[in-house]
Structure formats: C-alpha cells, structure tokens
Amino acid sequence: MGYKIGTKCLHLEKENAMKDQYGSVSYPIYQTATFAHLGVGKSTGYDYSRLQNPTKENLERIVCALEKGDDALAFTSGMAAIATLMELFNPGDHLIIENDLYGGSVRLFDNISKKNGISFTGADVSVDDIEPLILENTKAIFIETPTNPMMNVTDIAKVSKVAKAHNLMLIVDNTFLSPYYQNPIELGADVVIHSGTKYLGGHNDTLAGFLVSASKEISEKLRFLIKTTGAGLPPMDSWLVTRGIKTLGIRMDKASANAMELAKWLKGQSKVTKVCYPGLPDHPGHEVMKKQSRGFGAMVTFELETKEMALHILEHVKLIQFAESLGGTESLLTYPITQTHADVPKELLDKNGITDRVLRLSVGIEDVCDLIEEFERVFSEMN
Prior knowledge:
The chain is α/β, with parallel strands linked by helices. The protein has helices at residues 5-15, 54-67, 78-85, 103-113, 156-165, 178-181, 216-229, 235-246, 248-267, 286-292, 307-316, 346-352, 368-380; strands at 71-75, 94-98, 119-123, 138-144, 169-173, 191-195, 209-213, 272-276, 299-304, 321-322, 332-334, 358-362. Helix content is 37%, strand content 15%. The longest helix has 20 residues, at 248-267. The termini are far apart.
C-alpha cells in the first residue's frame, strides 16, 4: 500500500481485516482464552490465546508494517519484551550497551541477565568508538536513540556497519520517536523495541511492549520464546493499542511542535542551566536526527540551578502532572533520579549527568500557550 505513514496508522487495520467481521470499522476484540477445533488436525488458525489471538495478531501486523520489519510481537509491557529478547542469549555471551539507558533496562541487565551469565560493557555509543570494545563473545549492541533521559542521539546506520562487520545483532529501542518518526530497521537494525505503553498506545490507559524483527531467523526464535514464556499481550489491551495507533501521527506532530516551543522557552530561562532536545540546532545530535528521523519527538529534559527548584516545580505544577511514563496525550513531568532511574548505580547516574536537578518532560497535546503559562507561573513563584 502506497499511502503516507499517517494514513497507514488509520487504514492498515482495514487491510488486515478478516472476511467474517460483518463490515466492522473497528477490529473486534476476540476476548477468548481458547478456540474450538473443527476436527482432529483441523484448526481455524487459532488454538489458544497464549499462542495467538486475532486481535493481537491484527495489532502485530500493523506495528510490523509501520516499522517495515519481518514480524512484530506484542508483549504485556516493554520490560516483558526486553526480558524475552534477552532469552536469545546464552551464559557467557557479551553485549555492548548504551550507558544512558532507561533505568528498567539497567535493572534487568544488572539483576537478572548478569545472574544468567551474560556480561555487559557500557559505552557512550553516540560518541565513542565501540569497535575496540568488541570481544570474541560479543553478540549484540543495544542502544536507545534518543536516550532516556539525556536525549543523546546515535547514528544508527553508522553503528549498524560496525555490527554487521562483526556479525553482531543491533538492537534499537525506538520508544521515544515511534515508527511515525524513525524506522531503525531501514537503517540496519536487527531488532526494534517499543514500550507500546507510550506513544503507540498514547493514552496512558494500558501497558504493552513490542519486538520487531528484521529477519525470519530472529522472528522464529522470538515466536518460540513468546509462546513458551506466555508474555503475550491480551486481546483487550491489543485493541486499546490498535485504537491508539490510529491517532499516532496527529499526536506525534502536535506534541513535537509543542516540545519545540517549550524547549525554546526553557532555553531562555535563567534558572535553567541545560536543555536537552534534539530539535534545537545546538544539540550535538541535531544533524544526525535530521538525517535518520522525520521529526524530533516530544521529550525534553532540562536541568535547574538547584535541587530545590526542581522539587518546587514538581510540587506546584497543576496542568502538567508529576507522574512516571511518557508518550500520552497529557504532559507529564518525571524526576528520573527517584523514579525511572532509581535503580541505576550512582556512578553511572553521575557519568550521564542525571542529577537531583534534572527533570524529564513528556510534552502532551495541550495548547502550548497553556503549557508555557504553567511554567511561567511555577518559575515566577521561585523568585
């Protein structure tokens, strides 16, 4: 189908529709645990919802098409997706990972993957030469771009060349930009990760995660793992994410436009010592983002002069809510050091610049004038 991506978000569902839906515009929720057989050796194509369900399958086809992969698998959360992905590796394997990762990924690697015999080397992949870090037992490179929360940008195609030269898997967490703005598989990634809770779902009303694979070999392994572990997304949640994707384009465009205005406003505030947003021309990753993405996203991280200023903002916002998560219609402020990155070792937090003065803002789709007015109010109260 030759439609633009914004149209595909709406109409891929119809392309994948089955013949027995009675013309339903919204794909049905097949809220069933099991499926009856027509006879011995005769199946409708569905046997048990842990293995597959039509509503979940419809969602996976949509995400796969948007990410231009071979297959997509829907999980109960982003962390369930990453935990399942790590089952591709064996004791003794080694991975190179981005230093500035979501704290949940760091917690998984430090407390479960290492226990299972997998080792890791951290690097600032956006700037470091990672080739000297590759060992005989290195199997993969794991990155986010932009990173969470410091918004570092990695050249995916450049890292892919290194990965392919050494027969390594390249794993890219694309949660911050969504397939609407970035397609890592086209740039050489082997597996793309999404927390579907975020922009894909888009309404802060369900949890979901995705793995999108670039090859049939990886797809078959992941299909076996999701069947075995039982981490697949239930029908109702699958339907909610499918509904969310229909407005992905207009939400991303509105939220990103708001983020640009807010980032510019924050840059002009004397109490703000640093603004991390790739859409700003002085961001180190600005040119790379222009090359590999169709937009800059709606995540803005900024640093205040003091911890007390950061706490004042968190405790006095009203329209903007102090809450974990991101990517929904509402603007949310997060305090990484006590929330998303609370389990990251202090030395790594310090290295990445995640201090008690740093706030992460997920910009929503409110009127940007109201968002700026909210910040003007809380900033003026600090005088």
